[in-house]
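Q: I'm a student working through a structural biology exercise. My instructor gave each of us a protein and asked us to get a predicted structure, then write a short paragraph describing it. Mine is Exocyst complex component 3-like protein 4. I'm not confident about reading structure output yet, so if you can add a plain explanation after the tokens, that would really help. Here is the sequence I was given:
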Amino acid sequence: MSLSPTVTSWPEPHSPEESDKLQTPEQDTQQASSGDVPSTHREDTRPGLGTLRRAFSRASRRALGQAPGEDTGLLRRSSHFLRSLRRPRDDGPAAHQGGPAPEGPPGVTDGGGRPSTTGVGPEEPGQEEEGKSVADLITERQLLAAFEQLRQLETRLLAQKASGTFEQDPTGFARRAMDVCLLYDGLAAEIRAIVRETLGPGGVDAAALAELARVVRAEEEAHPVPPADGDFLLTPRRWRRHWEDAVTRSAQERVRQAGAGDAAGAAEGASGLARLLAELGGSVRRDLRQVRLQVQPAYSAAGLPAWEAYLRAFHGAVAQRLQELARDARGCEQLYVLLDWTANVYGSPDFLGAPDLTLSTEPLPPLLAPSVWARLESDYTSFLETKITSCFDGILQLEQSRWVAAEAPDVLQGLYHTPLSIDIHMLVAEHVKAAGAISAELEATTLRICARALGLFLPRFEKAFLQSEAVSEPHLGASINACEELRTSLLARFPGTFEELEKPLVAAVCVFQKRLLQGLQYDVQPLFRVLCTKAWLTHDVLQPLMDKVVAFAHHLEHVAPLRAQETLQEAHRYVVREYLAQVLRPRERFRGVDRVTGSQKMGLDAQAIGNTFQGLGSEATWLGQAIPCVADILGETYKDDIGRHLETLIGSYPDIRRDHVLAILALRRLGRRRNQRLLQHAQSLLRAAAKAEGSGAAGGRVLFEEIQVPTSVDLLITCI
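A: Happy to help. First, here is the predicted structure for Exocyst complex component 3-like protein 4. I'll explain a few features afterward.
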């Protein structure tokens, strides 16, 4: 029976990139003419053993001219046909000289099942006893034996071509060459199948892996370089690259399967994404440990770098998976989960759980491309800024709820305490620590975000607190303590970043101190009105005032020491200043004995005020001379010594002005000439004091400057 197919071109050898896509012309012809039902979907698109057997049987059917359903022994004849490819011809090249061209491949049976004798010699020694074809050996995964037989077929076919056997039958050589290529592809497909099953539930077949490694090395030795004459049969099959590609696909499949059940949960929130990444990390960890402990030793004898290949493959697969997750990440929490897993879980030296197993055996590219990493950080910081602002809103709401509930602040370690500073400290420390675990740049950015948010929070807190009904000495003291804690601790812990917040924090403390003093002033202001009256001369009207001062100072014991001392000194200055204001603006003017009695009374009051504040701990000793100096001028019987008292007063308080001197002299009602001399002397002292104040000698102490003295007829008379 003659054969009709005609081969018009030689097939190109399959590269690893094309081996999944290309088919030989013989296969294309078979598929186009076959009436078989299309096969079901397979994971690997490369021709498997079943594909090869079908191809071989179709070739046999073409040779016999049979329909697909007419022969029940196709696989048997295909196997016999493959074995016949290994038989040497009885006839030499001259056997067919002058005769008709061969009608079919050697060993193809005729319609009655008898072997055709055209160009067929006796069976190769050992083959009949063995009874196994190359396809059978591939099926049994005797890869090295299959390759050796296939190599013999290839060598014999090339020898026959070189001897001119196929000069009259070029299509016969083409068919045989196609069959050899199909067997090579079948062997490559089995290599891929073994790699795909290596990390599967069946466990590692060390013998199969060793066989695979040896056959890869054997093929490289058999086909070291492309032939000079371009013969495609001797072209290197590049099975090492096929093996590496199979490893890559296996890793991609394993990574894709990991966390498949949590893929929907990953879109719902950070917890679902965290579970997915945890499962992914556990799967990769188990697979790489298995590669290092079981797979690598099996390959090592043949010199295949299994660990490096699997490491690169899994690294690339994880990187691809993270790229997909990064595109779908939403919200601050999900973005942080991705960044944290990349930097601190996968990037950890002990990711594989053993000191001798690391991911750094060779330089690996970044898990996420720099542009992707930068985008994730940028998106994270944008969400973080909104989140931190929301957290500060929550802190303010908590404080307001405490104010509404009229809860008194706790006393912690002797100081009024509010959770405000702890809440802010925890907020800043938590986010800065989390960002620092990812990168120094993200930590610095987070610090700036926290500092900016805190700077916006302070005036809001200050305004809300002062407008609430909870303003009292304990709450004011607690707020002062909170701001002071933030100022000292944040600046110490994060130097350079929170320095710009020192001024707002100090300003807030000053506002709360001022409000604290306003409460004292409101309580004691009416008590100053009875000073310098007839009743004052005979009664102790100062004691109620000092009792309120002592009660006020009791709250300062629970305020930060530095701020408590500042507030106490300010209270001390206020009491002395208001006392002098009442003296310089008397409701009643004393003469004779009343003036002397008033002078003595002022001395006693000055001593009481000084002793009280000294007992409370005030360090404003510079205030002690003010009231006694005025009292001495008022009660001085030797008028020439009044000038000496003025010198002491102006020297101690350089902020005193001419109007204050006039008001003091008006209390004595001295003669015109004496007043003129004392006033001239005082003006020279004031000019000297002004020069000293300009040079900073005054030390910033202010007392008389804040005392307003109204112009009266008595003052005018004194000036005249």
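A: Here are two points you could use in your paragraph. Confidence is low (pLDDT under 50) at residues 1-49, 56-130. Residues 374-498 form one domain. It's a good idea to check both against the output above yourself.
Q: Great, thank you!
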